[in-house]
Specification:
The protein is α/β, with parallel strands linked by helices. The protein contains eight helices and five strands, in the order H-E-H-H-E-H-E-H-H-E-E-H-H. It has a five-stranded mixed sheet with strand order 2-1-3-5-4, sandwiched between helices. Helix 1 packs antiparallel against helix 4.
Length: 187
């Protein structure tokens, strides 16, 4: 019997919503498992949900998410054809940076999603997904826009949309990176 990837992704989402493996579950309104089709060629991975994501239980729906989603559409993609998720599945208090222990506790969910979806390209948004998925020694300012292959997976690191909102000079590079990611994933 063939494996139903959509069902397995939903099982992960159920586990994420019920997770109490770290203290972040105590302050959440909603866990944010991630979303997208089980056969997505392109996956975007950020750091953690913010306040809007915590309220809605969906990734990248606040100001950063609006920028990401608008840029995805401007690149000629549909939101429904990409998978969007985060390193952490619960919001850190006050939108602080994820702690190493929280990342270590939560990483298996993202790794399972990646292994099921098997995207051609993963766009790491900012330093936390870059450091988790590619290498903890890398700096986003040094490798942004480069194609990096690790363990048979192709990655394209770019700025986190929140960084772009803070520094509009990063917007052209961010947009260009999303276009390049589309070309890498879809030819």
């Amino acid at each position: 019997m063939p494996v139903d990837v959509e069902d397995l992704l939903e099982q992960i989402a159920i586990q994420v919503r019920a997770c109490t493996n770290c203290a972040l579950h105590k302050g959440r309104a909603n866990a944010v498992p991630g979303e997208g089709p089980p056969d997505a060629e392109l996956m975007f991975v950020g750091e953690a949900p913010g306040a809007d994501e915590d309220r809605q239980g969906r990734p990248f729906v606040g100001r950063s998410g609006q920028l990401l989603r608008r840029t995805i559409v401007e690149a000629g993609l549909q939101e429904a054809e990409v998978f969007i998720g985060n390193v952490l599945k619960c919001r850190p208090p006050g939108n602080r940076d994820p702690l190493d222990g929280e990342i270590a506790t939560c990483r298996h969910y993202l790794e399972a999603q990646i292994s099921l979806v098997r995207p051609k390209v993963i766009v790491t948004l900012g330093r936390f997904s870059l450091n988790l998925l590619i290498s903890p020694e890398l700096k986003i300012s040094k490798v942004r826009g480069q194609h990096i292959r690790r363990g048979g997976q192709l990655f394209l690191p770019t700025w986190h949309p929140s960084a772009v909102l803070r520094n509009n000079n990063l917007l052209p590079e961010f947009k260009r990176d999303i276009v390049v990611a589309k070309k890498l994933a879809y030819g």
